[in-house]
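agent> Task received from the user: take the single chain below, predict its 3D structure, and emit C-alpha cells. No templates, no multimer pairing.
agent> Plan: (1) validate residues, (2) run structure prediction, (3) serialize to C-alpha cells, (4) report one or two observations.
agent> Step 1 OK, no nonstandard residues flagged.
tool_call: predict_structure(input=
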Amino acid sequence: MRRAAYVLVAVLVSVAVASPSARNDDYAPQWTLDLHQHGYEQPKPQQKGPLWKLLGLGPRNELAFVDNETLAVSFFVRNPNPGLSVRGKVAGGQQLFQTIFVDAKTGNILHVDQWSNASGHCGLFPLSDGLFVVWSDDELILHGHNGTTLKTATVFDPKSTSVAGFKVAQSITGNTLLAIGSDRRGRHVRAFRAADLSEIAAFDLPGYATESASDSQFAILQSRLGTMRIMDLFIRPIVEEDSPSSGQLKRIFTSAPPSCYVGTCLENQTLSSAQPSCDSVTFLDDRTLAVSGMCHSITFMSTSGDIIYTRQFERVLTDRVVPCRSCDLIVFGTYVLKGGSAFLDTFPKAQARNTIILNRVTNKLIELPDRSAKHHASTALSPNGCFLARQRDSRLELYNLCDSPIGTKLHIGKAP
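)
tool_result: status=success, residues=416
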C-alpha cells in the first residue's frame, strides 16, 4: 500500500512537471548554439571604468540578418598573435572583432570573418540586397557578398573634428546609415547612403536624447525629469528642403499636462495612460513610430503625433523595440527592477522577464520566457519575419516563427 502511494505521488509529480514543459515545447527554439565553441570572449579593455562598460560590451548589432536565411553573429575573440597593429593591415590587439555567418534553418556555420581589433566602436549593418557595412573605429567599410571590400568612408576624421566618440545607427530599410557623435559643442549627425557610403546630410542636435531614423526622417525623444518624468518627441527631415524651417526640430508629441508646457509641473498632476512617458523611440516604417523603454507600455504613433495603438504592462517595464524590415512583427523585452538602495545610493538591477513578439496588424502576441544576461543581450528578426534570433551572453537561440505553433498563434503565414 505504501509503495502504491509512492507510485501515485511520483505519477502526479511527473504530470505536474511534464505538462508545463510540454506546453513550452511548442515555443522551443529550432536550434541553439554555444558561442564559446567559436571563440566567444568577454571584452578585456586596456582601460577600465564606466565609459567602457557603456560602450565596450560588444559590437553594435551583435545579431543581424544579412538576408532571410543568413544570420550574422558578431562578438569578440582572443587574438592568437597579438602585437603591433598596422592600420588597415594588421590587427594586433588582445581581442578581435569577429563575425560568424550562420544558416538560420540548420544552425550550420557558413563562414567566419575577422574585421579589426575589438573596441567599443565596431559593428555590422546589413543592406537590403545582401551586402553589408562593417563599422571599425572611425571608418565604414562596404563589403560585397563574398566579403570583398567595395568602398571605405571616414565617419568623423580625427584630424579635422573634435568628436571623440560616436555611434552608428541604421534606418529600418537598411538604406541609410547615421553616425551620431558628440563634443563640447553638442551632438553631430552625418547621414550616409548605405549602397555607396556617400554622405547625404549633416546636421546638429541639441541636448541628450534617444534617436531613430527612417530613410527620410529623424526622430528624437527627450526625457525631462522633475516632479514627474515628461517625454517630448521631435522629428525633422534628414535631408533639408528648400524651406528655411525644414531643418528645425518639430515637436509632434509631449506627455506633459497643459500646465507643464510653460512652467513647472504640479506635484498632483498625473499622466494619462494614453500619454506614454518612455525613453526609447523606433521607426517601424517611414510613417510609424514605436515608443517604449523604461515604462509600462508600448505605443505606436504616426509621425504627425497621432496615437495609433497602445498596450499597458502593469507589472513589468518594456524595453526598446526591435522592428522587422519587411513584415508586421515587432519584438521587445519586458523586465523588472530589483534591489537598489537610496540610502547606499545604489541603482536597482534589471531582471529580464519575457521576450514579446507582437503582430502589429492583428495585435496578437506571445511571450517567450527570457533570462537576464550578464554582458550581452541581443535580438533580431529576419527581414520576412520567419526567424527570430536571441542571444544571451554565449547562448544563441533561433526560433522559427512561420512554420511553427508560434506562427499559428500570431497568424503568420507559412515561409515563402
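agent> Step 4: summary for the user.
The two ends are 59 Å apart (CA to CA).
agent> Done.
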